Amino acid sequence: MSIKTVGVIGAGTMGAGIALVCARKGHQVMLLDANQAVLDKALVYLESILTKDVEKNKISEQEMTETLELVHLVSEIEQLADCDIVIEAVPERLDLKKSIFSQLSVICREDALLLTNTSSISITEIAGGLSHPERILGFHFFNPAPVMPLVEVIRGKKSSEENVEVAYRFAQELGKVPVLVTDTPGFIVNRIARPYYNEALRVLGDHVAGVEQIDRIMKLAGGFKMGPFELQDMIGIDINFATTKSIYTDFFHEGRFKPSRIQQQMVQSGSLGRKTGEGFYDYNK
Amino acid sequence: MTTTNKAVLLVGTSPLYAELNHLMVERGYQVLSLAEAMAEPELIELAVEVNSVDMQAKKRQVRELDDLLPPNVPIITTSLAITATEVASWTQYPERVCGFGTLVPLIERELIEIAPALQTELDTIQATEDFFQSLGKETETVNDEVGLVFPRILTLIINEAVFTLMEKTATATDIDIAMKKGTNYPYGPLEWADRIGLDEIFAISRGLQRDLAEERYRTAPLLRKLVLAGRVGVRSGQGFYTYEDKVGVEA
């Protein structure tokens, strides 16, 4: 299948970033959002990134114009009918995603590939009960999508191997590094990174070491770029906690994934990290 | 602190042995084996014991050191798979025992963790800090628990990667690529395990499971089987990956 037109649903940071990744490779992109203000903001975001590229002499002014011309802002899902691939990047709510894929199942051609950028919802569950679930796959970009090289290509219970291959090659064509994952809670990265936060919280809770000590040790002894507490503050402690809880629930409460009371209290108290000015560290100083 | 010709007794079978030996000689220490120390035990100013897999062997060697050396000589012991407090409890002079933890290759470790036992006296802690700092390492003193901080957290990351591999959620290569490209880990967890030695990681995992007794610390069965099969990583030519030239571990 030759891919010409890509639909991107949701024009937030992830959606806009994915649209840029696709447009940079010459695809026609239909960027969909029901909210016009979000679409306007996405356009400003795309222009700002491309302007920086021009300033750094990475691309010419003409290439910038050409790339922007490839991105079409749309507000009705029916406008995605001719897309070869649709990538959904709306907020992480199962009902929302299910509703979108059930509409896409009707609107899109039977051979169109339907991808979800979810980081925490089961692909199998999103595809469950829909016609042609074999064409629904996970396609998980990392934030910021234009920069981070990884894409997790996730096969749901009913995804076809043929479509997995198409999605894998598509990720490569976009200049990304794809990895293949079978649908399991957290896929690869969010699952295996869990202990970095969770065990650090346990070590803290048991008073083996303090916040600054643990961060210092993981950076100097372990070679990690950021300590587990600095990272939680950057990601948002609420986001981190929600991911842990969802993986814990989806693994039917296996002990390894049990969330931390310390993290819960941070969320309850409104100390969510950098975005609130306070988390494990104080950013108001 | 001058280290010139200071005599240190080094014993144990951990991969740390070769690297510590190398580092100490480079920094002007006179490194003695147990047999050499037995001839002139009064020369020894410090003893370092590095066994992390076989707890019986560890106990035997720590007791040998304790019997051989005058009571004021510090015994620095790896507390990766067992607490320093438990190791100290084997000795007649527990106040001279202090734990530490790190993983090979030492060239990549800017910092070494020190974990005093409950019984350790202040002079011993000071001697332990001075010793590692004299090897050019920063130190951080933490409370005594199996695996300390870095080895414990890394062990759990590796264990989760092994579960992921065992369940065939992804291949070893894809798991390692994902963790490096998706979240900037310095190494993929499985290639990291191969470099450290699966036996060392297994020992830490087992120690956590034994001492803390929670499902959380359940060792991935595949990790146990690889160790039993002798596939401990780069050192043995095979682990999660195969290595044609058994290079990379000798210091």
UniProtKB/TrEMBL annotation, chain A:
NAD(+) binds at G10, A11, G12, T13, M14, G15, D33, E92, K97, S119, N143, K275. The record marks H140 as: Important for catalytic activity. Keywords: NAD, Oxidoreductase. It comes from the Bacteria. GO terms for molecular function: 3-hydroxybutyryl-CoA dehydrogenase activity; NAD+ binding. Pfam families: 3HCDH, 3HCDH_N. Residues 5-183 form the 3-hydroxyacyl-CoA dehydrogenase NAD binding domain. SUPFAM superfamilies: 6-phosphogluconate dehydrogenase C-terminal domain-like, NAD(P)-binding Rossmann-fold domains. PANTHER family: 3-HYDROXYACYL-COA DEHYDROGENASE FAMILY PROTEIN (PTHR48075), 3-HYDROXYBUTYRYL-COA DEHYDROGENASE (PTHR48075:SF5). This is 3-hydroxybutyryl-CoA dehydrogenase. It comes from Brevibacillus antibioticus. The lineage of its organism: Bacteria, Bacillati, Bacillota, Bacilli, Bacillales.
From TrEMBL, chain B:
Residues 147-243 form the 3-hydroxyacyl-CoA dehydrogenase C-terminal domain. GO terms for molecular function: NAD+ binding; oxidoreductase activity, acting on the CH-OH group of donors, NAD or NADP as acceptor. The keyword Disulfide bond does not apply. This is 3-hydroxybutyryl-CoA dehydrogenase. GO terms for biological process: fatty acid metabolic process. Belongs to the 3-hydroxyacyl-CoA dehydrogenase family. Pathway: Lipid metabolism; butanoate metabolism. Gene3D superfamilies: N-(1-d-carboxylethyl)-l-norvaline Dehydrogenase, domain 2, NAD(P)-binding Rossmann-like Domain. The keyword Oxidoreductase applies. Keywords: Oxidoreductase. Residues 33-144 form the 3-hydroxyacyl-CoA dehydrogenase NAD binding domain. Pfam families: 3HCDH, 3HCDH_N.
